[in-house]
Amino acid sequence: MPLCCIDDYEVEANRRLLPSAAAYYSSGSCGEETLQLNKQAFQRLRIRPRVLRNVVDRDLSVQVLGRKVHVPIGVAAAAMQKMAHPDGECANARAVGSVGSIYQLSTVSTCSIEEVAEAAPNTIKWFQLYLLKDRDLSEKLIKRAAKAGFTAVVLTVDASTWGVRRA
């Protein structure tokens, strides 16, 4: 049976993942208020169809920070991806690059900055950074990302502490 909607993907993920990994990926922190608000926001989105138009020369590409991106949807940072697949963030970065989009590597990744850079040399890569109390470590992470070819830093400013998670 084809996967048609996000609920189908969640069912399939729960079938394939270890229960602990499925619980981690499907949960949020504290009372999961932000998780619920995000789900509600996505439910309000609609694709507005355009009919009776010439679609022979369609182009979804956009310019982002001076780079052409073929698909106007990037992949945001997600932690601990080796819980879902042995290649973790490396596999995700390769897949994103294959469609010409942007990949964000999490500060809390299970593959190193250098491993992701080597695995996906042609992918546009950005590094997501939690500004750590240890500013020297934050600076070292930024320098490693720059040296590895990451072209932007995505600074997470709304997480001053690690969230308390149920999973």
Automatic annotation (TrEMBL):
One of its GO terms (molecular function) is (S)-2-hydroxy-acid oxidase activity. Its cofactor is FMN. One of its GO terms (biological process) is fatty acid alpha-oxidation. InterPro entries: Aldolase_TIM, FMN-dep_DH, FMN_HAD. It comes from the Eukaryota. One of its GO terms (cellular component) is peroxisomal matrix. Residues 1-167 form the FMN hydroxy acid dehydrogenase domain. Keywords: Oxidoreductase. It holds the Pfam family FMN_dh. This is (S)-2-hydroxy-acid oxidase. It comes from Riptortus pedestris.
